[in-house]
Each structure stands twice: as structure tokens, then as C-alpha cells.
Amino acid sequence: MLDALSPQRRRLVLGVVVAVGVLVLALVAAAVVRSVSQAGPVPQDRPGPVLLVPGYGGRTASLDPLAAALRAQGRAVTVVSPPGDGTGDLDAQAEHLADVADDVLRTSGAGSVDVVGYSAGGVVVRLWVRDHGGDAQTRRVLTLGSPQHGTSVAALGAEVAGGCPEACEQLLPDSALLRRLNAGDETPDGPLWATVRSDADQVVTPTASAALDGALNLRVQDLCPSATTPHGGLPGDPVVLAALSTVLGVAPPTAPAPTCG
Q1: Angstrom distance (rounded) from CA 51 to CA 161
Q2: Which residues of 94-120 are buried (b: 16+ CB within 10 A; e: fewer)?
Q3: Residue 175: pLDDT band with limits 50, 70, 90
Q4: Which residue, 28, 137, 160, 257, is most buried by CB atoms nearer than 10 A?
Q5: Which strands make up the sheet holding 216-219, listed edge to edge?
Q6: Angstrom distance (rounded) from CA 210 to CA 226
Q7: Are the C-beta atoms of residues 212 and 193 closer than 8 Å to each other?
């Protein structure tokens, strides 16, 4: 059939066939990574690389204290840069996290990852676990000041501005995305779950929005009653940094010893 085409058209057709073949191979490779990881429960005694997922707006520098502390413990760390400016569809951000996890597992040879989601990044992590294969790829999930049940700040901002970017709309209390995410089991089987929140958080309000049924839910003030850690201070808070060892270790997640820095 190709013989009937001109040389130029023949080259074009062959180029398209090669491109399609490369795409198919890439999709098959991703499927293999996910199917291998789905062979059984993730072993809890084999900590793998750690993925750090930033909050609304995707400012990865906010995660520097976490990355430094984890690397000091000998953990391999990947900071996940969100697609676009980090204010778009949270479900699309979860799909991107799935791609990053596939790549980290493939290149590291590890059997699982641990994931820390800060602020809206914690919602992204839950979407990944629930809807994008993360339940078979992650061993531990730790979320920090995440508006798991929405935040009145997003509602106020949307009201004052007459609307806000898609991720902001999805973080409104009782948004369609959060209703779906919180229907049934808030902490699906697969990873072990933990959350940390601060009573002084003025971004995620009410602060109890950050807690999850079925998780180890920690309040900074339970361990340091005088703490006034704001939302932006959570990634560097002494309680959070201490929890990296007690939550992402080999033993079941527990609260760290009381610490105020």
C-alpha cells in the first residue's frame, strides 16, 4: 500500500506510525509500573522515596524545610511541581502526581513512595490515592494544613472577587469535588494516613477541616500548647519536622514527643 504513495507521503505516514508506536510504548510502560505495584499491599517495612506536593499556587520553595529534614534522614526526596500555575483543576494535578510517582518508582526501583501534601497539595494527594492508582503505590500519606473539607477563606475570596480560579472554587466548603472526595471512606485502604494542623491557621478555616476520619490527626498545640504556627509556617514547624520520623518511619504512625523547637 505504501508503494502507491509518493516518497513525501510515504515518509509522512511512516513518521506518524513511529510516533504512535512510541506513545503506545510509553502508555504500556506506565501501565506496567502501576500493575506491578498493584500486585499486593504495599510493605510497610520498606520506606521508599518521598514525594512533596505543594499547596495552592504551587510554590515549591515553601517545602524546603521538609525536603532538607528528610534528606538529612537519608531519604530520597522529589518535590512535585504542579502543572501550570498550581491554581488549576485539582484532579488534573492528581493525574500529574500519578505520572511523577510512576517515574520515581521506575527510576528508583522502589516498591512504593511516601507522600507529604501541604495545604491544597493534601487534597491532590487524596485524589491521587482514591482515583488515580495511588492506593497501590504509596505507603504513608501525611497532609499538613490541608482543606480536606473546604475553607471559608476560599468562599470569602470567591464572594468578594465574584469568583476565583478553578482550584479555589474546588476548595469551597461543599464543592462538588469535595463532596465526591469525602463520600464514604475518607482514608481509603492502601497507605497509612496522618494529618497535622495548627489552631493558629487562618487560611484553612475552620482548622478542623484538615482532619480526616481514619487518620492519625495531630494538632501542633497538643504537643506545643503555646505554638502560634500560621498556615505558612507549617512546613517548618518543629512538631511537623519531628512527625516526619514518627509518621514516615517503619513503625505505625504515632505522635512525636512534645516539642516546641
Answers
A1: 33
A2: bebbbebbbebbeeeebbbbbbbbbbb
A3: very high
A4: 137
A5: 77-79, 50-53, 113-118, 138-144, 192-197, 216-219
A6: 20
A7: yes
- Write out pLDDT tens, residues 204-243: 999 999 999 999 999 999 999 999 999 999 999 999 999 9
Strand 77-79, strand 50-53: pairing: parallel
Q: Is 57 helix (H, G, I), strand (E, B) or coil?
A: coil
Nearest Cα to Cα of residue 191 among 243, 118, 123, 133: 133
More confident residue, 146 or 38: 146
Predicted TM-score of the model (pTM): 0.84
The CA distance from 8 to 228, in Å, is: 69
Tell me if 134 sits within 8 A of 80, measured CB to CB.
no
Q: Is residue 200 a contact partner of residue 229, using CB atoms and an 8 Å limit? A: yes
Cell numbers linked to 39? 500486585
DSSP per-residue letters across 165-179: -HHHHHTSTT-HHHH
- Spatial neighbors of 50 by CB under 8 A, at least 6 apart, are 70, 75, 76, 77, 78, 113, 114, 115, 116, 248
Return the C-alpha torsion angle 140, 225, 182, 186, nearest 10. 40
- Yes or no: is domain 49-247 CATH 3.40.50.300? no
Is residue 198 within 8 A of residue 231, CB to CB? The reply is yes
d(C-alpha 62, C-alpha 78), whole Å? 14
